[in-house]
Amino acid sequence: MFVSSLVHGVLFMLQVPVSLGSWEEWWTYDGISGPNYWGLLNPEWSLCNIGNRQSPVDIDPSKLLFDPHLRPLQVGKKRINGIITNTGHGIVFKANSTAKAEAVYIKSGPLSYEYRVDEVHVHFGSSENFGSEHTVAGQTFPAEVQILGFNSDLYKNISEAVTKSQGIVGMALLIQVGEETNFQLRLLISQLNEVLYKGQQAILKSLSVQELLPDTHFYTTYEGSLTMPGCHETVTWLVMNKPLYITRQQLYALRQLMQGEQENPKAPLVNNFRPTQAMHRRLLRTNIDFNRRKSLQCPTMYKNMFYQANPGLQ
Ligand SMILES: *[C@@H]1O[C@H](CO)[C@@H](O)[C@H](O)[C@H]1NC(C)=O
Ligand SMILES: *[C@@H]1O[C@H](CO)[C@@H](O)[C@H](O)[C@H]1NC(C)=O
User: Fold this and answer.
1) Cα(205) to centroid(ligand 1), Å
2) Percentage of residues in the chain having pLDDT higher than 90
3) Residue 85 contacts by C-beta under 8 Å, 6 or more apart in sequence?
4) What is the pTM of this model?
């Protein structure tokens, strides 16, 4: 789908991001077009209701399974340019389609292919008590940043990959309130006043995906889905084991964004998260070796709190 839009006084023909294809736009995060009904709104979205490998999920520490074969993740160092859009469902950064050499790739970890970073989504709540999609031990976070890449070894673009096996990787960065913010997170949300209304866009330059990541090589991984329609079960998720921090002022700025166009702003664009989904028989694998690290300071989402791996699973 193409729209023309006025970005910084220049008229561009842009590809609308995210929608990850030309999905129709009338799904929401509440009411009769909310998450409980996504699968009924459109036959192509039926997995949203009947799928058994859906996302997000709760990262239950007692279910974590240490997998010694999980390698460290590798994330490219390049800085990327792109466009930030208020989609009416969220705030999405879409990387410019640039030469292959300019793109950022995610590989290794649990991945068998290289994934090209294509979109960054931001989910957030109307209060600090919720906002994230993934949860840890049942606890929600005020926000979550998701970095989505597509399998560029096998597929041409994200819209093709999203329906295909091993198509997508999603990195979930949970966000806590803190005094200081990661510089790249600040950059990512630096232009919110340019995208207050649905359809508005702003150029964003020089985003470093690598420096956006929290300072940890520990993660939990599982096989899941897109967290919005059509809920395709093609996503390998990586939930990083340390949060990023956001200030109260930045959360406040996010809550000023609106779901509708300028002429009809509708409601604030908050609480754009899907509730957690059942694990069914999936595994939550981690590269944290709890046994070996017992005497060490164990990495954790909360200061002075430890994940407990279930010894029976190890
Ligand atoms: C790519 O990013 C640059 C910013 O450096 C911007 O000027 C340009 O318009 C973008 N191209 C597209 C196709 O969005
Ligand atoms: C993505 O790739 C497919 C297959 O090559 C192609 O048909 C489609 O037009 C591409 N979509 C976009 C949005 O570039």
Assistant:
1) 8
2) 77
3) 16, 17, 18, 91, 92, 94, 195, 199, 200, 201
4) 0.87
